[in-house]
Amino acid sequence: MAGTRALPRLARALGRGVPTPRRNPFALGYLALLLGTTLFARFADPGLVQRLHQASSSDAHNLFVHPVRALLFSGLWVAGPVWLPYFWAFLFTVAPLERRIGGLRAAGVLATGHVGATLLSQAVVVAAVAAGRAPAADLDALDIGVSYGVLTSLGALAGLLPPPWRAAVLAGAALFVGRQALADGDLVTAVGHPAALAAGVALWPFLRRRDRARPARPRGALVLADAQR
């Protein structure tokens, strides 16, 4: 009987976890923007797309010459030709975080990770080039995408979960980041992705204070928390 009663509760929790324009305007709006730029990159003139990518890149050279443009526009593209992985990434990170802390704060978390991890990773690239440990071409290497913001959102979300789920999420994220760094062998990825995840963890005190200050929410505000109960 207990299992039978638990099924409707789980179904309701999963239903509340489905993004809707009312609950997730920021996450869905951002995904729509990324879908638009992905389709543009696929069907537009390749030369034009390359020029736009290069102008949007947050590589060290662009950050020095056009820092605001580089930091803003680099987050308007996906890294690669496929959009669907970003849909799932937003579904399990940005969307639940937005439902918990609101769209403006979720946007702030994503922007913090995107900007902070970008600046740190590119500073390491500059230092590596200056020390002769990386080629000068790395200063102009294409750097676009929103993976930093997604990982920061994941790290921030973990701090709002019950302890068992929190540990599982962080362990899975750390394993993913570590394996990716070893597989890619890319300096920017090896520095930026762990830094982005750590930035989300660093935001826990602020987000928890904000979360406690909000009015009581219906049970199941987060799908994982509901599933645990």
From TrEMBL:
<keyword id="KW-0472">Membrane</keyword>
<dbReference type="InterPro" id="IPR046862">
    <property type="entry name" value="Rhomboid_2"/>
</dbReference>
<feature type="transmembrane region" description="Helical">
    <location>
        <begin position="188"/>
        <end position="207"/>
    </location>
</feature>
<feature type="transmembrane region" description="Helical">
    <location>
        <begin position="106"/>
        <end position="129"/>
    </location>
</feature>
<protein>
    <recommendedName>
        <fullName>Peptidase S54 rhomboid domain-containing protein</fullName>
    </recommendedName>
</protein>
<feature type="transmembrane region" description="Helical">
    <location>
        <begin position="71"/>
        <end position="94"/>
    </location>
</feature>
<dbReference type="Pfam" id="PF20401">
    <property type="entry name" value="Rhomboid_2"/>
</dbReference>
<keyword id="KW-0812">Transmembrane</keyword>
<keyword id="KW-1133">Transmembrane helix</keyword>
<feature type="transmembrane region" description="Helical">
    <location>
        <begin position="26"/>
        <end position="44"/>
    </location>
</feature>
